[in-house]
Amino acid sequence: MKPRGQELGILVILIVLCAITAIKNPAFLHLENLQNTGQLFGIYGIFSIGIGIVIITGGIDLSVGSVLALLGVILAILLVDKHVNPLLSVFIVVAGAALLGWGHGLLVARMRMQPFIVTLCGLLFYRGLARFISNDETKGFGDAKGFEWLQKASTESWHGVPIPVIILLAVAVVMYIVLHKTVYGRYLFAVGRNEEAARYAGINSKAVIASAYVLCGALAGIATILLAFYTNSISPSSHGSFYELYGIAAAVLGGCSLRGGEGSIAGILLGAALLQVLRNLVNLLHIPSSLEFSVMGVVILIGVLADTLLRKKR
Amino acid sequence: MLALRGVTKRFAGVAALDDVSLDLAAGEVVAVIGENGAGKSTLMKIIGGAYVPDAGMIELDGASVAFKSPSDALARGIRVIYQELTVLDNLDIAGNVFLGREKRRGYLLDEAAMRKETTAILARVGLKLDPNRSVATLALAERQLVEIARALSMSVRILILDEPTSSLTLDETQNLLRLVGELKAEGVAILYVSHRLDEVHQVADRVVALRDAKNAGNLAREEINHASMIKLMVGRDLAPARGAAVGSAGKVRLKLDQLRTLRYPAEAVDLDVYAGEILGMAGLVGAGRSELARAAFGIDRYQGGLEVDGTRVTVSVPRDAINAGVYLVPEDRRGAGLTVEMAVRDNVTMPDLNDFASVGLVNHGAEAKFAQTWADRLGVRAPSIETPVVNLSGGNQQKVVLARWLALKPKVLICDEPTRGVDVGAKAEIYTEMRALADAGVAIWMISSDMEEVLAVSDRVAVMHEGRLTGTLERGAATEEAVMRLAVGADL
Fold this sequence. Notes:
The complex is a heterodimer of chains A (314) and B (492).
Chain A: H1 6-24, H2 31-56, H3 64-81, H4 86-110, H5 115-133, E1 139-140, H6 148-155, E2 157-158, E3 161-162, H7 163-181, H8 183-193, H9 195-200, H10 205-231, E4 233-234, H11 243-253, H12 265-284, H13 292-313
Antiparallel strand pairs in A: 1-4, 2-3
Helix pairs in contact in A: 1-12, 2-7, 2-10, 2-11, 2-12, 3-4, 3-5, 3-10, 4-5, 4-10, 7-8, 8-10, 11-12
Chain B: E1 2-11, E2 14-24, E3 29-34, H1 40-47, E4 55-60, E5 63-65, H2 70-75, E6 78-81, H3 93-97, E7 104-105, E8 108-109, H4 111-124, H5 140-152, E9 158-162, H6 170-185, E10 189-193, H7 197-203, E11 206-211, E12 214-220, H8 226-234, E13 252-261, E14 269-274, E15 278-283, H9 289-296, E16 302-308, E17 311-312, H10 318-323, E18 326-329, H11 333-337, H12 344-349, E19 357-358, E20 361-362, H13 364-377, H14 394-406, E21 412-416, H15 424-439, E22 443-447, H16 451-457, E23 460-465, E24 468-474, H17 480-487
Helix pairs in contact in B: 4-5, 13-14, 14-15
C-alpha cells in the first residue's frame, strides 16, 4: 500500500546507469540532452501514471498508444484545419480521452469484460480511426499560426526545466496524494487485491474500477498534447505506437503488480525515468539503435527479477 | 428485530433456500446449524444483502426491507463476517478494520485516528499487534480476528458470524465467545453459524436448523445438546468412527529423522508414523505443525532425513514426495488443495493425468470414468463430475481433495485440518474414509486443532508446542488434559 522501499532498488539502478552514461559520454550532461530527455520523461511519465493506476486496480490499458494517435490527429485537425480556440481544443482532447477511458471502464466494470480484451480492441479501433479521419496523411502544426503560445507552453522550458517535466511533477504530486492519502486511493488498492471483499465492505467497486480508466484516459489526453507538439507532426500509422508498453513497463519496473493492489507513484516515476535514460544511453554510447528494444527488455527483466528475489527474501 | 418470512432463493432452478423463516431479537444469540449445502451461506448472504431473494420477505423493525447490495445492509447496521476471509493482504490492519468507512480529515485519510482506534479494538479481541502491520504477515487465525475487530469497530445492530472460530485456538475461541456475550449484553442481535456444537451449546439462546434448504426445526435454550442438534441436522444419529487400535503394531511407513524446516520452527523433529495408524497431531495454531508437513511434502526446504518404508528419500519438490507415495491434503483447501475453477474431474486426475495420456494426448473417456469412480466412492455430492469445484460445499470440496490422493494409492497421507469448515455428516464420512485407508495399511498423519476430533479419531497423538515435538501419547494416555498440557509446553 505504502511505498515499501522497493523504489530504492530502481533508484540505485537509475543512478548507476546515469553515472555510467555520463562517464562514457559527457554529452549526457549537456543541457540540451538533459532537456530533451526530460521532455520525453515528462510525456511518458504522465501516461505511465495513468496506466499504473489501472494496473493497481488489477486491470491493464493497452489502448494508450492509439489514443495518443487518434487524439493527436484530432488536435491537429481542430487547431490547423478548423481554427478552433486552442484552449477549447485542449479541453476537447483531454475530455475526449477521458471519455474513451470511461467507455473502457464501463465495459470492464459493468459488462465484466476482461480489461486486456477491451483495451486491445481499443488499440486496434482507435488506430484505424486515426488513420481514417486523417486520410492516412501526416498532420503537422507547421509554424503554429494562432496557437503559438500553446506550442510554446508544451515544448519550452521554464528556468531551464522543460514544461512537460513541470506538468508531470504537478500530476505526480496530485496523484501521490490521491493514491496514498485519500480514501479513494485506498479503494483503488482494495478493489485491485480483492474486488469481492471490497464490495462486501460497502465499497462501490464498479465505480472505483471504472474511474481508474477515466483517470488513465485523462492523463493520456494531457500526454497527447505534449507529445503532439514534441513531434510537431503526427503520422497516424506510427504516432504513439508501442507507447502503452512503455507505460506498462514503467509501472511494472516501479513495483506495480499485474495481479493488482500494489504500486506507488514514486515507483512509476522512477520506472518512466529509467526507460528514458536507457533510450538515451543506447543513443549516446553508440549501441546500434536496432538493439534499443533488446536493451530495454533485458533491463526490465533484470529489474523485476531483482525485485522478486528481494521480496522473497523479506 | 429481524424477521424472515418464506424466503426462497434458486440458482439455476435448484433451490438453495426453500421457504425459510427465521426470527432474531435484540440481545439474542441464534445459532444456525445445518450440513453443508443446507442453505446456511445463502441465508446469510440474503440477510447481508449480497443476494436478492426470489420470494418471501425480510422485515427489519417491523417494516419490509429489500437490500440490493451489501452496502444497503451495512447502512442498516447489519454486518456479516463471512467464512471466506475478506481481509485484504495489501493493506495494514488499521486499513482493513476501517475499510469502507475510513476516518477522514477533509479529503484525506486520517491515519492517526484510525491507528488509535484500531489499537483499542485489537486489545478487545485479544490481538497484541501493531495496527500498521501488513495483513500479509499475519497467520490465518490472526486474520480472522482482524475481521472480527472490523465488525466490532462499527455500530452493528445485527452481527452474523459464519464459522468464526474455524481457525482459532481454544483460548482465542473462548475470547470470541466472551465477546459475543458482551455484544449480546449491549443489545446486539447475533446470528451464529458454526459446526462446532460445543460452541453453539455454550453461546446460543436458540438454535435454528436447516436441512436441504428448508427449516428443519428449532431448539430452545434448554433443548440444546449434541444429540438433539445432530438429529435435526442430519435426521439420524452419528457416532465418530473409531477403528480397532493398531497403534505402533505396524511397521514404520514414514520416518522423520531430525527433520528441521529452514524457516520457523527450525527445531529438529523425530517422528514415526506407522502403517495402519492414524497419528493425530495436536498443538496450538503456530506450533509449527503445518510447516513440518509442508517440508515433508517438499513445499518448503528442510534439513535432516526422511524415510518412507525404510528407504531414505530426498524430497525437494512435491513431485518427489508423490513419487515416494506421500501425499498432503493441505490446510488451505481453496488456495492450495484444489484448483477451484476447474471441474471435479480435472481436480481428481490432476496429479496423475499422464496415466490417461499417450504421447501427451489425454484420453478423456478413461479420465472421466476414473474420476467418476473415485467421486462416487467418496460420496462427492455434485451434479456431475464436470461441475466446477467452486460450486461445491466445503465438505464436498474436501472429499474431492481426498479422492485425488486416494486414487493414487498412498503409502502416507498427511491431512492438515481435514475437516475444517466441514459439517458433521461429511466429517463422519471423512473419518470413515481415513479409517478405511489406515486399515488398508496406509499411514495417516492428521494435523488437527479440533481437540474432539484428535481424541476421537487418533490411534496415537503427537503434540507440538512452539516448533518442538513435546510428546507422543498412546491412545489410552491421550486425555484432553494431557494433550493440552503438552500443547502449552507444560510437563505431563
